[in-house]
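Quick entry, no commentary yet.
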Amino acid sequence: MESLLDVKQLTNYINGEWEEAKGDFAQVKNPATGETIVEVPLSTADAVDQAAAAAEIAQKEWALVPAPQRAEVLYRVGTIMKERKEKLSKLLTMENGKVLEEARGEVQEGIDMAFYMAGEGRRLFGQTTPAELKNKFAMSVRAPIGVVGIITPWNFPIAIATWKSFPAIVSGNAVIWKPATETPIMAYELAKIYEEAGLPKGVLNVVFGSGATVGDAMVHHDTIRVISFTGSNETGRNIAADCGRQLKKVSLEMGGKNAVIVMDDADLNLAVEGILWSAFGTSGQRCTACSRVIVHESVKETLEERLLVEMEKLTIGDGLDAVNKVGPIINDAGIEKIKKYIEIGKDEGAKLLAGGNQMTDGDFAKGHYFAPTLFTDVTPEMRIGQEEIFGPVVSLIPVKSFEEAIEVNNGVEYGLSSSIFTRDVNRVFQAQRDLDTGIVYVNAGTTGAEIHLPFGGTKGTGNGHRDSGVQALDVFTEWKAVYVDYSGKLQRAQIDVE
């Protein structure tokens, strides 16, 4: 452990300095073993004030740096991340619990995002358009907003931070970042990488602490003009309300109740692979995780049998051991929430086919493990078919037709990700049109988004903004219309038109 992490107590990173935190600290524990890895500060609102003051000054200078030069910093960040990929991946597994293979994938996502958003330094495209008057030029350009606040979750502690901070920084903004207290190590390591890459002091600031204190202070701080949040639906709604009263820009990416649709003509072996990966990868702790399987009644029994066989083969344990494919749940609170939904499912009349229990024998007792779980004969209105569980729990919902499958998929409050397995090209195109989700997969599971496309969803999943892709720039820039009249006289639009 000591060879990977060079400190025992983290400190805030403000104005290019590692500021000694004041007040209390929380222990960061490895969810696989229960071992304390490091201590993280529980900062006060004063730290947010300090970071905001530094960011406001730094942003004014940073915005004047040509965007291609700003991009050079991101190219260096991506290069350093690539060099340290294995170290970052192991640290990520230690603090988050996801298996090392997945941790490497998450770090790679950050690397990809660095190079992609660095490319935007030579684009950041606006538009030119004909003016309606003679000797007049019209165009639109992107302008930075100023100081932005990003609040990131524990389940993707580095990837989501790169989705938010990279477009913000290449656009000419300064950033204040509050990472989750469960997984602060990736923030510490990424801040060090930014520093090494030559990002000017104050352009990135990291303030550790709770959402109730640090997050709330960021949301209500006058200097911070954008909040980009990924987390729970309840918290997101509160942030949106608070930001709305301040006319502050807010981007929300919240929950999902994602479904894989398996039609009667599907390749069932491929469907089983897709379900297993998207349901039990990250132990179901993804906002895009498969939580429902909407299956045509004619193949339901066969699919159940094959899922049960393959679930038995899943290896569970510490993610640093390459033999394991499913890691732990993040903490006790996560375990208790899953347990609650298991009982809810039973009470509602769903049939429990596998799992449904916390794993506490042997080495499992040291961490937080829950057995991969499969319910069947779930009806669409059951709570386990409607509410986000955030664990390795899948509900099979039988349907009689393609049309019913689409209706069931769309009949939840969320709209993040959906998937359909079918060989019928007509159904494929109908599904991608009619599935009310921000992401649609065909003959694949519900996870696996790529960084050059927009990430986000409809309905209760968010508020219309997107992380990732070129669309992420819209969160961190304002559109400015520019008119240049070179006629030498006053020309009045809509009036002096011949």
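second:
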Amino acid sequence: MVTEQTVGPGAVTARWRASAAATGPADRAGVERALRAAYRAAGLAEPAVVRWFGSPRAAAEAALELRAGGAVSVREAVRTRPWEEARRRAVERVGPAGWAPLWALTGGELGPVTNSLAGRVRDAVLDRLAPEADAEEDPQDVVEAARARRTAVRLALLDAVRGQHDAPWFAAFEAAGEPTGAAEGAEKDDGGAEKADGIDALARVAREAGWWWPYEGVALVSERPVALHRDEAGRLDRADGPALEYADGFALHAWRGMPVPPGFLAGLGTVTVERIRTEENAELRRVLLEHYGYERYLADSGAEPLHRDETGVLWRIQLPADEPVVMVEVVNSTAEPDGTFRTYWLRVPPGTRTARAGVAWTFGLTEAEYHPQRET
């Protein structure tokens, strides 16, 4: 049996990192047992019905309908209260001075990437269920209806428990000695039912399921995604399909973290200088430019250097309705094994006026401060 006494923060964090990124079908029977234990731990009657959905979008739509019908959310009792109590116990156990470094090794390590992904899911669900109206073109009643719909969806999303995307907190709780479903099986009471420990039950759901919504008498649960593609920085990233995909078709497309329309990436292989110049969306234009390559764009667009000196050559790419891309072309002074000298392109602030100033900026120095004794 694995316990917090035999596993350090690093191993705990690694395990919850895997849970946060897990894909594929849940152990539905196990999740439903844990859900019922969470309700019992909150002093509530178990949900008579547990409804499963292919994605958070579908589950959120069902939550919207439940709220419209007068359903009462029990998130406060099921999730918020045991969460606060677990955090209090964890801080008491390790001490205020010990909590900060423990959090840095667990929740602080997982939080940026996991919370960013959860935010992307939330925003996508909101946009799919309640698109914004055009205040300048649509009639006032259409605009007001759209705003009311977005408010209703936001409220439904506030009822959600993030499941696997709550991994940062569970990692911290487990490292501090809280029960988080790490052991195989669950303890039973004298009647044979699983013991109702709130945070442990919530953790067991998070290890197997995506977002879920607790209401009186019914719980709505989303499956985890079927595919997740990220780059080395943890950003959503895929050039040949959805970066995040659910079984029912709900999906997010992204290129190195940048949200893009579903069909946008299909044309990256044939992008041209003119296509880059005529793209009206500045963020999508940057995706095109990054994929095309700055060096290649400079050559193919006939760009001319702004400045050159002994440190390199300063180039500027002027883009419509956007800040210019300014780069310094530098040549490594150390030869490669084959005798050639490698060229690097360093992106620098748009206001850079000289190549030396650009190179200095990459070292955190001003142009006047930059006096290298030996270049490598």
